[in-house]
């Protein structure tokens, strides 16, 4: 036990006397978390809540135009612009400004949109009414009418606009147009059936939806916004980045000959590795708590939501601990196999990035291609992230995260065993 | 009565994929209390032999025992009885001399006050007491060489392997190291020593062996070997006679 204690003491001394190493281990992950969260906040907001300027080129200037303007003005996330520098916007100018990325969206309403829609609806209503033979009413006689050409509302999107932003806008406008069409049909029928009819038609949409959360309440509060997504995701990324300094540390031990001293001493390679495991596990937990503290206390000062831990502090710590263990195992394996820092550092860094990408740190697994979704199940970061989401978003307990914890432990045991066997094999060269 | 410290029988090593044998059927016995000089040009097989004896690599064939122990049967006891001082400074540069020695001492099972006292006394014996709390990276080559030596002998090994312990140091450090080694020998430590300083070996060793191409060509006291070669005045003359004058670039 005293050998292990002395090994940990040595490792900590080595770490804390390397200022650059400390910066990489503790400060860089915090900068990464802050930067990525702030950047992604903009992206999330563009879909979920940020103010987006919309150019409206209005060739209609009638009822539909009025309804669309009302709709855009009512949405606090959208800012409607119909003039620039006091002049109406032309379609060409709007197209150019959106193409340049100055604005994210331009909506072009065609000429006579309202009038043609009314005519089109009127023609259809007339046809239907004529089928019912309301005798004596000359207006109900179907007449030969010229068909109205379908109209197009043109949408110009910034080429760099996020696909989900485009989808959200298209769906909103589609819904708005359908709503206007329905109302026009209703009011036309109302007019046709008699001006003296005093029927109040419900303005409200009859079928609506309600998203229900895990507690039977509205789910909006538990949606993973940038903060709730990024704190666990990037904390995991930082924890796994320990692979780089740890593997370098082991390669250094080999290069400077200190490993040789251990190999020729009565201390086993396993105990030597346990010293590193305990130390780097401690480091990963410190990283985790630092990032948690930043998420909870610093984020609100820079315009981000505070990270919500709720009653899950203990469970989150358990996940961080075992994720750290898996990361340490990978670092030990790479450090044992690599013979130079030039091998271990780039390989360790690349592996971490690949595991993060495959594991769903950057892009949610469910939107990945099927092959990648299957591959993601092999990434320890995916296990850790899955466990974090189970606790933070699905109200999971220790039993729920047990499969992920077991996988993380197996990852550590497997990598450690391979490292020890490789070291033994190396001596038979 | 002297006992056997190291017994080697037909030891061979051929590295995987190599077209030569690094050590060939080498047999040797070193008695307790000897200072055995393992001499030979670069590539003669000295480091391979030491690496096998230290347990870093495994032999292809043959066997050996150290202090009656083998790696197969008693690896921990064998390693506990061994001290290894590599040619490179096998130290942590950012740790102080004391921190380095405390760590390496503890890896040999030393602990507590005994370890602390041993570290301070050893550093004092090699003139490093006033520098014990300074980082090794700030030391001169001679100082590092002395700490490097201490890290291998802190646990008072029965057999000590030294790989060129005085290479690249000034006269003062060299004298301090040699005196310290003589004191260890006086206390009963068996020393196996490699060096390219043949005059140093002649003065220091009780017996030497000259290796060439993986084989042990000659062994005996320096005086015996010099006497056996007709024209030899020194150990260096014997060495040149056996290994030739050609350059050895490995």
From TrEMBL, chain A:
A single Gene Ontology CC term: plasma membrane
Superkingdom, natural source: Bacteria
Topology class, membrane: Multi-pass membrane protein
Coiled coil location: none
Protein family according to the UniProt entry: Belongs to the ABC-2 integral membrane protein family.
Transmembrane portions of the chain: 12-36, 231-251, 278-302, 314-335, 347-367, 401-422
Keywords: Cell membrane, Membrane, Transmembrane, Transmembrane helix, Transport
Ranges where the ABC transmembrane type-2 domain occurs: 173-426
Protein name, per record: ABC-2 type transport system permease protein
Pfam families registered for this protein in UniProt: ABC2_membrane_3
Localization (cell): Cell membrane
Gene Ontology molecular function, alphabetical: ABC-type transporter activity
Automatic annotation (TrEMBL), chain B:
Key words of the record: ATP-binding, Nucleotide-binding
Domain ABC transporter stretches: 6-238
Origin superkingdom: Bacteria
Signal peptide, first to last residue: none
SUPFAM superfamilies documented for this protein: P-loop containing nucleoside triphosphate hydrolases
The keyword Oxidoreductase belongs to this UniProt entry's keyword annotation: no
Pfam families per record: ABC_tran
Coiled coil: none
InterPro entries: AAA+_ATPase, ABC_transporter-like_ATP-bd, ABC_transporter-like_CS, P-loop_NTPase
Alphabetical list of PANTHER family matching this protein: LINEARMYCIN RESISTANCE ATP-BINDING PROTEIN LNRL
Protein name as it appears in the record: ABC-2 type transport system ATP-binding protein
Entries under PROSITE patterns matching the protein: ABC_TRANSPORTER_1, ABC_TRANSPORTER_2
GO terms for MF: ATP binding; ATP hydrolysis activity
